[in-house]
Amino acid sequence: MGKAAILLVDDDEASSQILSLILMDEGYDVDLAATGGAGIEKVSANKYDLVLLDFLLPDMRGNDAASKMKEVSPGLRIVLLTGYTKNEGERIENNYERVLLKPVHPELIIRTIAEILG
């Protein structure tokens, strides 16, 4: 099996760059998008093994982005990264393999990706 392709959708440029470097060091191909719309476009144009998706994006909620990504790529695996807890009023849809609460330690992200991708 070749390198797994991961799309990281997060508007926090600094943390996206750091996480991208960490994931590339682990052998993953990483692509970045700063908005839900850009992420949807990338999913429409490319094949990804997994998407790491922030919940609160400048143009839409992660739930909306995930639903649209699944429309264009039905088998897509998505991990939601969020600072929200279930008690904060936003319903988190079942479009995700996992939901990780921010701040997320990079080792947990790496372990989660490895478990999902097998």
Output the keywords.
single chain, 4 helices, 118 residues, 20% strand
Q: Going across the biggest sheet, name each strand in turn.
A: 2-1-3-4-5
Distance between the termini: 11 Å
Radius of gyration: 13 Å
Q: Indicate the percent of residues in helices.
A: 25-40%
Shape: globular
CATH 2nd-level architecture: 3-Layer(aba) Sandwich
- Write down how many β-strands occur, each being a DSSP E stretch of 2 or more residues: 5
**How many strands, which pairing sense, and closed or not: the largest β-sheet?**
5 strands, parallel
Description:
By secondary structure, the chain is an alpha/beta fold. The protein has a single domain, classed as Response regulator (Rossmann fold, 3-Layer(aba) Sandwich), CATH 3.40.50. 39% of the residues lie in helices and 20% in strands. It has a five-stranded parallel sheet, with helices on both faces. Helix 2 packs parallel to helix 3. 28% of the residues are buried. The mean pLDDT is 91.
Helix-strand blueprint:
Blueprint: E1 5-9, H1 13-25, E2 29-33, H2 36-45, E3 50-54, H3 62-72, E4 78-82, E5 98-101, H4 106-117
Parallel strand pairs: 1-2, 1-3, 3-4, 4-5
Helix pairs in contact: 2-3
Task: Give a nutshell description of this structure.
With 118 residues, the protein is of the alpha/beta class. It has helices spanning 13-25, 36-45, 62-72, 106-117; strands spanning 5-9, 29-33, 50-54, 78-82, 98-101.
